[in-house]
Amino acid sequence: MSSNTQQLKWVDALKAFAIIAILMNHFVENFGLFPWFSNPSNNWPELSERFQLIIPNIDNVLAQMVVFAGWLGDMGPGVFIFLSGFTLVYSNILKKRKTIKLKSFYLKRYFRIFPLYFVIHILIILIAVLINMQDFDITSTKVFLSLTGFRFTESTFFFLNPSWWFIGLIFQMYLIFPFLYRMLLKLRLSHFIIITLAFTIVSRLLGLLDLTYANSLYYWMTGLFFGTRLFEFTIGMAIAKLFVEKANSKIFALSNTQILIYSLIIYITGFAASLFYFSTLISNILVTIGLSGLFLWIWKLFEKTNLSLQNAIILIGKISFPVYLLHQPLMIWAESIFPGIHKAFAMIIIIFLSFPIGYFIEAQVNKIVKWIEQKLSFFSTKSCLHLLLILIIIQLALNISYLYTNSFMLRNINIGLVIITLFFSALFLYFNFSSQQKTSFQIISVTLFSATLFTLVLTFHWFHVYCIYSLVIIAIVFILRLISRNYIFIVFGSIVISTSLFIGLELNLRNTKPLESVFWGERPALQSDSRTIYSLIPNKTTHLRYNNYDYTVKTNSHGFNSPEINLAHKDSDIYRIFVIGDAFSMPEGLPYKKAYPFLLEQKLQDKFPEKNIEVINGGVTGYGPNEMYAFCNKYIEIVKPDLIINQIFLNELEEVHILPEARLGSIGFYDMSYRGKLSLNCQVPVYVKMVMRKIRPKFQDDYNYAKSLAYLYEKKSYYYSKETIDKLELYFKNMKKLCKKYNSELLIMYVPGQLQISKPKHINFYPDKINLSDTSVFNLYLANRIFENICKKNEISFIDPSKSLKANIKQPLYFQESWHWNEEGHKAISTFLTINIRHLINKK
User: Fold this and answer.
1) Sign of torsion, CA 504 510 516 522?
2) In the chain, at which end, N or C, are there fewer CB atoms within 10 A of the end residue's CB?
């Protein structure tokens, strides 16, 4: 973005004035004073309010002037857009280029600004992590998209550093420049201007009419999509063509006074246009042209001053890019650290230091890039390939080490190596791309990029598969090189084959034996619910297949996993039981007719043929005390039950602490990025973790301990604290009060954990490295007693089937691969309940 010849000093001067305007704008905005007239947004004030807010509402006149000048600086990036179009055309026309070679142009433009942007980006991330100033996941897609400069999605547009939106926009401009350049040379200049102006106006109009893919009008109009700022770029191109050809030389022979007058007229017209909604179609264009003219007028005044001052302005322009990249996040952090007047001093210091620091960083980056370019000529392609392979092997070793140790230090080192590999493969590819002989090294560079981008975009847990995928794609490259030496065939063949293998493996795992991935396996059958947090979707048949389960949930109009029941009226001979509970009652893993609510209804009907027994199943997987109470409160008046069986499980000890937001998030009910949606049920990373657990016994032990819920049997656990018991007691009191209000009996049925009932051989995840019989640490029946004591204290009926289940002849009663009752378990519970509630039915 620096000037191409010495005669264009004014270009660097305009950059200098533009960066000063931007710095003033960011200084003012860090005090919470934002202009509304630069680009329209979704929350623009009313017209009368807009006129009142043109001048800052500040008592001090000097402060008003500073703030207003800072607001006007918000359009400074438009000058950079204008100059980018000008300098690109100027240099290419001077070299008499009729067309632009796409490959060469894209690589040169990208690597002209990418290394500096990349280095400053990494520095900002490191500082942010070290001083804990921003909360973000360093492994997220946004980080990697931002690192490569692709910042034209809403989630990345202002990510980490708001001013970096310009990088995403300028890359879009670079992408279309070769085609624009061809248009410029082929068409009459007036036609070129009309076409690009029309495209810009239409793009901006789509935003104003809310017909775009963006939710934020401000992002759209600022430059999320290149079309909204295109004419600011192409008018620079057009002026460059006139400038080189000296066409209509009168334009370039304007006096300084004329430049001032015309620029003021254009700028004021643009500013006035920015006050009204639909006139913002052209406001940016006019402001950018007018502001560029005003800056040119200022420069011509400086040309009459001493040479040292001119050189200082030129130097500021030359280092404007690193200053632009560096300053804003530092100012934002200073704003959050320093109070009052100290904040102003801190930001002024940051602004001044940004110039020497930016100059130093850019100089060092340029030296490194030149050094790499020189050194690469001494490296054989085989050496370069070896370097990349070493990096990949180190990553694989670190990845395995991380999976063995769970060390976040190793994890972060590996993430750094992924970035370094991506960076070096890109640099090597750039510096060697001119070679006519397509070597293994060049092919590896392309395919490594493909491997990285593929795993970043497609998989949610990319970290677990990146290294393996990279090695696979490299192996395929060498195999294809034995078949053919055709560069295109090898590159695209390796990408297609490796991607097909990955997708094929993924689809095969999903179709043969899918596992729960990021979110709950039951998610397709669930919906968020304003009253009960979440619930089963009514009138839906859902085939659920995950882990060891393969079953169907078929709900009625109320969202109960049971046949349709007419609840509009209730005859006197009906005895209605309402079962409320979690996955044991829904049930998870079995169809409704094999679940204890259905079996209970059949057995009770046989015992009491003179009565009409109805057992309504209100069980919903994952329900804890918060959801159960909300569910009962919603349906008790509709169901009118004589008896409510509230099935509770051991894990209510932790479920009672879970807030609605966390619950919905764990299920998967929140706005997901495209990557989240793609990887919703991604299997490969889950299977990689499973394989690593089998390889590493410690991981398997930790997994078994958590999976078996052994931690809930620890006597000194937080889950037995007074806070937990008080919350549980409040829940039971509220349930009793609710049932009493509607004349329903309340019966609490405790479900014991698998460790209490099944033998170790019947539990695939039994924590055999833990001595559960150590009474100083564990008590398998502590939870039973706590629930029972709470119920006794509050005069609530309580039953515990632990002894009955343990004495049952047929074992196991739980699925060996999971917590819940199998078919035999449901039969046993239905028998247990039939015996224990007969007296309640007899009372009716």
Assistant:
1) positive
2) C
Which sign does the torsion angle of CA 681, 684, 687, 693 carry? negative
Least confident of 104-113, 203-212, 675-684: 675-684
Give the model confidence (pLDDT) of 95-131 as tens digits.
Answer: 788 888 887 788 788 778 888 998 999 888 888 877 7
CB under 8 Å to 544, separation ≥6 — which residues? 521, 522, 524, 525, 550, 551, 552, 553
User: What is the reported pTM?
Assistant: 0.61
Question: What span, in angstroms and rounded, lies between the C-alpha atoms of 155 and 673?
Answer: 9
What does the alpha-carbon distance between residue 269 and residue 258 come to, in Å, rounded to a whole number?
17
Which token pair is 24?
């003033």
What residue ranges in 618-744 does DSSP mark as E strands? 643-649
* Token pair recorded at residue 671: 């706005």
Distance, in Å, from the CA atom of 527 to the CA atom of 545, rounded to the nearest integer, reads 18
- Check residue 135 and give its pLDDT: 60
Q: Please spell the DSSP secondary structure of 66-133, one letter per residue.
A: HHHHHHHGGGHHHHHHHHHHHHHHHHHHHTT-SS--HHHHHHHHHHHHHHHHHHHHHHHHHHHHHTT-
Q: How far is CA 689 from the centre of its chain?
A: 22
- Three-state secondary structure call for residue 310: helix
CB 267 within 8 A of CB 294: yes
Cβ neighbors of 272 (< 8 A, separation 6 or more) are 279
User: Over the stretch 613-649, which tens digit does the pLDDT of each residue have?
Assistant: 999 999 999 999 999 999 999 999 999 999 999 999 9
Three-state DSSP class for residue 758: coil
Q: Is residue 609 reached through a cis peptide bond, with omega within 30 degrees of 0 on the bond before it?
A: no
